[in-house]
Amino acid sequence: MSQPEEKQPFDLCGGHPALDFVNSLDERFDERGPVESLCDYADLLRFTQQTSLLQARQVRRLGNTVTAEAATRTLRAARELREAMAATFYGRVDAHAPASADIRTLERYFRAASAHQELLWTQPAENSSARSALAWDWGRFETHAELPVWIVSQSASQLMLSDAMDRVRACGADSCRWLFLDTSKNHTRRWCKMKVCGNRMKARRFQARREA
Predict the structure, then answer these.
(1) Which residues are within 8 A (CB) of 204 and not within 5 positions of it... i.e. 6 or more apart?
(2) What is the CATH number for 40?
(3) Which of 117, 29, 112, 30 shows the shortest CA–CA distance to 78?
(4) pLDDT tens readout for residues 115-166
(5) Does residue 9 fall inside a structural domain?
(6) Which pLDDT score is estimated for 90?
(7) What residues make up the domain containing 71?
(8) Nearest Cα to 20, choosing from 9, 8, 29, 12?
(9) Is residue 165 part of a domain?
(10) Is residue 137 part of a domain?
């Protein structure tokens, strides 16, 4: 029996989990149609683990316990959240307001994430210099199928409600437009990846000048 093909890791060039999550729908603006990277619940779990939003033990538990029905429902929610995030991020980049329906969708998911956290008293590990403290945790909700969606929502809200939104950019290649957080010294980064989109656009401009 042949082994299932191992999927490629997500490309995390966005510099923030929320932006990488939007980028999981590739070629979003291509006239031939987008390419989906979140094909099933397992992909959603892979994303949250690769971006360190969830720990490996949490991912394993969810992968072993979530029912097929719950997985399908959660994947649908994840995609709905992603598209509301995309509308908001691209609206900011392109200087136009997202639809009110997208804002209400974000509000619903942000509230859900907050509602499923518990305030816990944390104990430091032995031989640690850290002190006991209060902290928000997923607690009894850690085994719920929706945990990946809640934690992506939390990551998105932290970015969207911060000054870092001023540094969100879209790749300058029209065929790409992946989102990224511009952390360059002069805030002049133009490409998601210079070796891919940057070089491709330079080659196109060079060819256009030759043909002019």
Answers:
(1) none
(2) 1.10.3300.10
(3) 112
(4) 999 999 888 877 777 788 898 899 999 999 999 999 999 999 999 999 999 9
(5) no
(6) 97
(7) 17-111+143-211
(8) 12
(9) yes
(10) no
Cross-strand bridge partners of residue 131: none
pLDDT per residue as tens digits for the range 13-56: 999 999 999 999 999 998 899 999 999 999 999 999 999 999 99
Closest CA to 116 of 150, 87, 86, 82: 150
Kindly indicate the confidence band of residue 168, based on its pLDDT and cuts at 50, 70 and 90.
very high
- In whole angstroms, how far apart are CA 205 and each of 27, 130, 174, 177, 208? 21, 56, 13, 18, 5
Q: Count how many domains the chain has.
A: 1
Please give the structure tokens belonging to residue 209: 């000048």
Nearest C-alpha neighbor of 101 from the set 115, 84, 116 = 84
> Residues with Cβ < 8 Å from 11, sequence gap 6 or more?
20, 23
Element (H, E) at 133: strand 133-137
pTM: 0.87
Say which amino acid occupies 47: F
Q: Encode burial over 48-85: b for 16+ CB neighbours within 10 A, e otherwise.
A: bbebebbeeebbeebeeebeeeebebbbebbbebbebb
Does 164 fall in a domain?
Answer: yes
Q: How confident is the model at residue 6 (pLDDT cuts 50, 70, 90)?
A: confident
At residue 76, the 3 state secondary structure works out as helix
Amino acid letter, residue 152: V
